[in-house]
Design a protein that fits this description.
Blueprint (H helix, E strand, L loop, with lengths): L28 H66 L26
Length: 120
């Protein structure tokens, strides 16, 4: 009932199984090495440029900060004096009934600014 297809009477044509490659198989090893070396050198130049630019920005920020440092220090000194006065007033009110109390420091040493901001 069914008829199976078969090959043609003259046979199938020849199958070309050999690789069809161009005469050149791409860049040689030295060419690839030089290409990678050139890309690496270009990348390092870009990194160096970026580093110099970043250093310049950092130096500019530092100079700006140094320029306004006296103003910032004066503001902090004013804030500290006001906070210290408030602290001494609270201490005087708390210690009002204690005989022999003075608000002088316990230790007679050189004055140093506080390491941390005063918490009120």
């Amino acid at each position: 009932r069914y008829i199976q297809d078969g090959p043609p009477a003259s046979g199938f044509g020849r199958i070309n199984y050999r690789r069809m490659l161009a005469s050149s198989r791409g860049p040689s090893g030295i060419q690839m090495f030089l290409g990678v070396a050139a890309m690496f050198a270009f990348g390092m130049v870009q990194v160096n440029r970026y580093h110099k630019e970043r250093e310049a920005v950092a130096a500019e920020r530092l100079e700006a900060r140094m320029a306004i440092m006296p103003v910032l220090q004066a503001e902090e000194d004013q804030r500290y004096v006001a906070a210290r006065q408030e602290q001494l007033e609270r201490e005087r009110k708390i210690m009002a009934g204690v005989p022999g109390y003075t608000d002088e420091p316990f230790y007679k040493t050189r004055w140093m600014p506080p390491a941390k901001p005063m918490v009120g």
